[in-house]
Amino acid sequence: MTRTLRFAAVLLAAPVLSSAASVAAAQTAPAGYDQLVSLYAEFRAFVPPAMVNGVPDYSPAAIARQQAGLKRFQARLSAIDQRGWTIAQRVDAMVVRAEMNGMDFQYRVMQPWTRDPAFYSTTNLGFGPKMHGAIALPKLPIAADKAAALAAQLNAVPEALRQARVNLTDTRGDLARLGIVQKQVEVNVYGQFAAQAAKVQPALAAPAKRAQAAAASFKAWLEGIEATLPAHGGVGRENYAWYLKNVLLLPYTPDEVQVIGEREYQRQVAFLKIEEHRNRAIPMPEPVQTRAEFDAKRRAEDEDLLAFLRGGEWMTIPDYVKHDPEEGPYQFPFEKDPSRPGLFDKPLNLHFFFQSEFRDGRPLRAHNLPGHGFDGLQAARDTRPIRGAQRLFFVNGLRNEGWSFYLEEFILQAGMLADRPKTREMDYILGAKRAARILPELKMQANEWTWAEANASLVSRTPKWMKPGDAVAQFDIELYLRQPGYGIGYYMGKVELEKLMADVAVAEGERFDIKAFHDRFRAAGSIPISLIRWEMTGKDDEVKALLGE
Fold first, then answer.
1. Beta bridge partners of 56
2. Least buried of 20, 33, 212, 350, by fewest C-beta within 10 Å?
C-alpha cells in the first residue's frame, strides 16, 4: 500500500549488478549507445517546466515550447543507429522511447494544467499527480536559511493559484470536485502550520496564512463553476488504448484487460468462498487498538516474512532489507487533515486496508517490504545511466505494482499462510479488491462512468470491509481517474509477471529455479515487463507488435 501512493519510488538493479559490471557494460557499448545515454540525460533535464518567480510555467506559450522541444528529442532518438546493439541495449532505447511517449501523452492528451484543478496541489501531501514544486511542509522549527526558502515558496502560492485559474480552460466536473476536496485539506493544513509557526517560528506564520487564504479562494472558485462543467474526466477510449501500447508497453487492448480483470475477480471471489466455508468455525482476529500493539505486531510480521523468504530460498533478500521501526501506519492524504481524529483515537474508524492490516498484516507487508520497500532500497544501489534512473511518466507502474501484488498471493501459494486460515481469507479479499479496481478505471477513462459510478462499483464489488465513503475507495478512484494505468497496474503487472514465469519455466524445464527467476527479474530493473520478457527469453513478438512491426 505504501508504494501505491508514492509515485517517485522505483526499482533498479539487483545487488549482483555492481558498479564494476556497469562500467564493463559501458566499455563494451557499441557506437551510438553513448549517444543514447547523452540524449537521455538531456531529455530528463528538459522535462520539468520552467520556474518563474517560484511558480511553474504552464502557460500556453510554455507548453508549446515544451512540445516543440519534445519532438526534437524524439527525432534525435529515431536517428540513432542501433545496429550491432545487444538486446539489453535495445531495451534501454525502448525505455527512453516510452518515457518520451509518456511526455507526449501528458502534453497532447492529459493536459492536467488545463483540465485538472487537483493538479495544482501546492502541498506535497500525496494527492497523486501534481504541479512541479509542490511544498513538503516540515516540522518546525527549521534552520533560518531553510525558513527563508520555505517562506518564498509559501509566498508564491497565491500567484500559482491565480495562474491556475487562467490555465484551467478545459476543466471537468469530476476533476473539479476532487480539487475542492483537496483544497479543503490544504486550507486546514496551512492553517495548522500557521498556528504552529506563530508559536515557534513567527516569520513563517504570515506566508502560511497567505497560502491558506489563496487555497480557500481557489476552492470557492471551483465551487462556483463545478456545476457548469462536463462531468467526465477520462482521456477517451482511443487515447487510453494508445497509452497502454506506447507508454506502458502493455501487450493488451482495453477489451482484453477487461476480460482478464473480470476473470480474475471471479477467481478471487470463488477461492474466498471456499476458504470462508473451510474456516467457518474460526473467528476473524480482532484489530489491534493501540499504536504500541500495531508496532509490535508489524515487527513480528516483517521478521516472519523475511525469514520465510530467506529460509525457503525463494529469492535473494539482502541484509539491508529489514523491518523499519519508524515506518508506522500509512495515512492517505486527506487523513493528514488536522480536523480529523487521530488514527488510534477511539472509536477506531478503520478503512479497508487497515481492516486487514490491523488483524494480520502479512499480505500487505509482502506487498510493501519485499515489494516496494525492497524496490526503493535497491534504487540507491544502481549505477546504470538509464536503468538506474527514476522512471518518468509512470512507465514502470505496472512492473512495480505487479511485482508487489504478485507477492501477496505468492506467500499464500508458497505455504507461508498454511497455519493462518483467516489470513488466507484476507489475502483473497485483498485480491478481489485489486481486481474490482480494473473495471472502474476502464469505464472512467472511456468516459462511460463518472467518478461516483466508479466508486460505487468498487465499494459494492469488494467482498468485505468496504462501505460508501471508505477512505481507500475515495483515494483509489481519484487516483485511477487522474493517473491512467494505476488501477489496472496491480493485476496486469501480476499477469505479465506470471506469463513470463511460465515462458521461462517451459523453456528451462527441470532446470527451472524460482529463486534464480525472481533474481533475474529484479535485476532487469524498473522497466515494463514486456521488455524484461524480451531480455530474459529473447522473445521479441510482443515488442514487435508494440512497435507495429
1. 51
2. 20
